[in-house]
User: Fold this.
Amino acid sequence: MYLHSAFKKESEELEQMKRVERGKDMDSLLYDLLTTHSHINFGEDAVRKIITDYLGAKTKFETDSKGNLYINVLKKNKTPSKVMFSSHLDTVDSRNKGVERIILKTEDDWIRCAIVKEEKYLTVGKEKVNKFQLESLARKRDMDFDTYTVRDGKVYGSDEPLFGNWVYTGIDAKIKSEPKLRANILGADDKVGCYIMCRMIEQGIPGMYVFHHGEESSCQGSKYIAREYKEFAKNFNYCIAFDRAGYNDIITKQSGSVCCSNEFATALAEQMNRRLPPQEKMKPSPHGAYTDSASYTEIIPECTNISVGYKSQHTDDETFDHEWLTVHLLPALFQVDWESLPVSRDPSVRTHGYLGYGGYYGNYGYSAEDEEYGSGFTNKGGIWRKTSATTASMTRTVKRGAKNIRSCFDRYKHVMKNVDTFDPETGFDDTETEEMKINRILLTFLSEEMSETEKAELVLRAYEVNPDDVEEFNSYHRSWGL
Assistant:
């Protein structure tokens, strides 16, 4: 789906931003992480290399068969820490593999990502023309076809393109292209988390640092550790993931399930807030989605995610506050006494709302009976207690699909938020194709939640403003090939 007017504005905004210079406008490590494209199917090895090269030969690290990267920083007395720190190596972005990623910044230090794409356009003489201008030129020559195409610099028209009945219109034209900046998923979710952990390792802050494989594809790496290395995970009292949008959240529930105690979250917020600005303070939040730290909630008492300053994750509008990260968040994290935090939650006992991603998007219709049968937990008085290792196939299927559901809803919400709705008074952009117009009208129906009567009124208004435009819209089956 292509929303032309939105992208046109976006391209202009991106062109006005400053290109980030490595080592000058941004720390080299963070720049390298953001410009390295990684997905569950490619690129994680390159991210691991960036991390291990940066930390140097003195840092010991291990990688398991899934691709999870472990770095253990011991306490001063050479004993292991009870804290697991978590981030993930992948992003949701599977598109534009191998294309250079350009990091941009606004005047107030918000970071975006763009790529260069060739944009095709048509010229007649020295002028750019769109579809409607081309049709107008043809009508001046007493020609009006359903379809136009360009071959060897000449414009042909046809009402029966499948049968090859093409007529030369007398118009000569050329197809050209020019490079344009297009917004792209930044990957701050979770390259910012990886960067934070590298800086904490550099500071010598004790902990087991786990850079997880495949979080964006149903938390594959963390689930593998929880399943295959359960005894290893039992060594920790805390799992703290640097993987959360915004400025303020210390997550206490993921998908409706309690993942850490309020005592723990409040104590962590108090320590961090001593060094955070008054307008943006940390606080407990029950509105978490399922992430890597949730994989350990049956093993590790206190599991949470902390906001790290990105927003609009999983979309081309993704951005993060670079100043917040470097000036405020990192210094606050460096000063936390992690092992002094309370340990109050019993991982064998959990209060449980509903299955899957309900905590983030609402219940998808699976009842408590479904989960009681499938998860091996029994609900008594609102408290879920683990009773067996049984897991129903339906429950496994729902959990595997949950991450995709969340990503789809993120994208849907992004489109609904940014759609340039159709107004008969202003009409369409000159360069919008018929398909773009149709999509914009359909999105207007959805975003405005219009009733059938309201849709009819919109059509009537459009007809009264300009009947010719309505006739063009009704002939949407026509196509134009270049």
Q: What stands out?
A: Residues 126-172 form one domain. The longest helix spans residues 393-418. The radius of gyration is 27 Å. The chain is about 35% helix and 20% strand.
